[in-house]
């Protein structure tokens, strides 16, 4: 017992020393969620033929080209068949929507084009269609560095997200920060607590047997601490998304991520 406790203390000291060294050396100590998954899961994410999230990318590509709404326009009609116009777009969302005067996340932006520019029915949040389109668009940002937060108009949204991040929530009375800032790398039951960087979203989660958004992932943490989750699309989620993207500023997008 005592030996184990000493070993843990030594490891923690080593970890703190490494982090301090990294900081002083200007090395980025942040690690994406994939770094906290098993070798098998990492290999699955890396190999497009094995990554189950790639099916959503392909489905999104079909939807991109398919006409919708009364004018029969597709996303491709306005944005181009090769979708190169979408390169890097996910890496800077949530973005500030000047018309609405508020932050909008990538799924919200796509839904807005579907509804207002194609005149098609508003796609459902977490519905298959919107997830596939968002995964297709976000995949075009793979390797792009996250830049949300460079737009000063997002500052109030990011601050609102930070306040939520630090607030104690739910019956367990825990904040996001207590787990993800203070205890990243530690075990919680069978899972390892990651740093919660949103680099891989939408992700394919093996537990879900499905693709899912960052909002769905955060929802899982909210119910985990026995807090009432927000409704999909709620400003609280957009604020948390904006905060997490700003916290991950400069990290590379890796959509579609694979998680246990
Ligand atoms: C009790 C500890 C705990 C709290 C509190 C918590 N989380 Fe988590 N979170 C986890 C664990 C554990 C995982 C990984 C679960 C897994 O893979 O099975 C996770 C995963 C995540 C991920 C996915 C990261 C990735 O790499 O894909 C995000 C994002 C996240 N949490 C955000 C939040 C937010 C936002 C809050 C506050 C609303 C929060 N978490 C509160 C434990 C926590
Ligand atoms: C009728 C033309 C039209 C159609 C059809 C259309 N869009 Fe758009 N979309 C636009 C315009 C115009 C903008 C720029 C709006 C702005 O910057 O304020 C835009 C912006 C976007 C953005 C944000 C780009 C950025 O640089 O921030 C995304 C993402 C997007 N559209 C995705 C889609 C998807 C996915 C579809 C199909 C479901 C689609 N759009 C259909 C015209 C269209």
Helices and strands in order, then pairings?
Elements: H1 2-24, H2 39-46, H3 54-65, H4 75-79, E1 95-97, E2 102-104, H5 106-117, H6 128-139, H7 155-166, H8 176-180, E3 187-188, E4 191-192, E5 203-205, E6 210-212, H9 214-224, H10 235-247, E7 257-259
Parallel strand pairs: 5-7
Antiparallel strand pairs: 1-2, 3-4, 5-6
Helix pairs in contact: 3-6, 5-6, 7-10
The chain binds heme C (2 copies).
The CATH class label is Mainly Alpha
Number of strands: 7
Instruction: Report the CATH superfamily.
Output: Cytochrome c-like domain
Low-confidence stretches: 4-14
Q: What hetero molecules are in the model? A: heme C
Instruction: Output the CATH topology.
Output: Cytochrome Bc1 Complex, Chain D, domain 2
* Strand ordering within the main sheet: 6-5-7
Largest sheet: 3 strands, mixed
Give the SSE string. Answer: HHHHEEHHHHEEEEHHE
What is the averaged pLDDT score?
A: 93
Structural classification = mainly alpha
Protein described:
By secondary structure, the chain is mainly alpha-helical. It has a single domain (31-260), classed as Cytochrome c-like domain (Cytochrome Bc1 Complex, Chain D, domain 2, Orthogonal Bundle), CATH 1.10.760. It contains ten helices and seven strands. The chain has a three-stranded mixed beta sheet. The chain has a two-stranded antiparallel ribbon with strand order 1-2. A two-stranded antiparallel ribbon has the order 3-4. The longest helix is centred in the N-terminal third of the chain and has 23 residues, at 2-24. It is globular, with a radius of gyration of 19 Å. The chain starts with a helix and ends with a strand. Residues 4-14 have low confidence and may be disordered. Bound molecules: heme C (HEC) (2 copies). One heme C (HEC) is lined by residues 73, 75, 77-79, 89, 95, 109-110, 113-114, 117-118, 133, 137.
């Amino acid at each position: 017992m005592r030996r184990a406790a000493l070993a843990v203390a030594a490891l923690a000291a080593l970890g703190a020393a490494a982090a301090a060294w990294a900081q002083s050396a200007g090395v980025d100590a942040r690690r994406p969620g994939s770094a906290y998954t098993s070798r098998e899961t990492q290999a699955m994410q890396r190999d497009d033929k094995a990554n189950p999230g790639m099916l959503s990318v392909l489905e999104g590509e079909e939807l991109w080209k398919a006409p919708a709404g009364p004018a029969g326009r597709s996303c491709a009609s306005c944005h181009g068949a090769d979708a190169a116009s979408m390169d890097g777009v996910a890496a800077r969302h949530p973005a500030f929507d000047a018309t609405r005067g508020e932050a909008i996340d990538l799924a919200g932006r796509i839904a807005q084009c579907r509804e207002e520019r194609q005149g098609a029915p508003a796609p459902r949040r977490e519905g298959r269609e919107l997830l596939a389109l968002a995964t297709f668009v976000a995949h075009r940002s793979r390797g792009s560095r996250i830049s949300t937060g460079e737009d000063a108009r997002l500052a109030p949204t990011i601050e609102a997200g930070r306040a939520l991040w630090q607030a104690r929530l739910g019956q367990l009375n825990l904040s996001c920060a207590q787990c993800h800032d203070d205890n990243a790398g530690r075990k919680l039951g069978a899972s390892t607590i990651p740093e919660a960087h949103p680099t891989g979203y939408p992700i394919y989660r093996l537990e879900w047997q499905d693709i899912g958004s960052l909002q769905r992932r955060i929802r899982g943490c909210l119910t985990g601490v026995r807090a009432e989750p927000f409704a999909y699309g709620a400003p609280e989620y957009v604020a948390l998304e904006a905060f997490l993207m700003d916290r991950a500023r400069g990290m590379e997008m890796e959509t579609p991520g694979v998680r246990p």
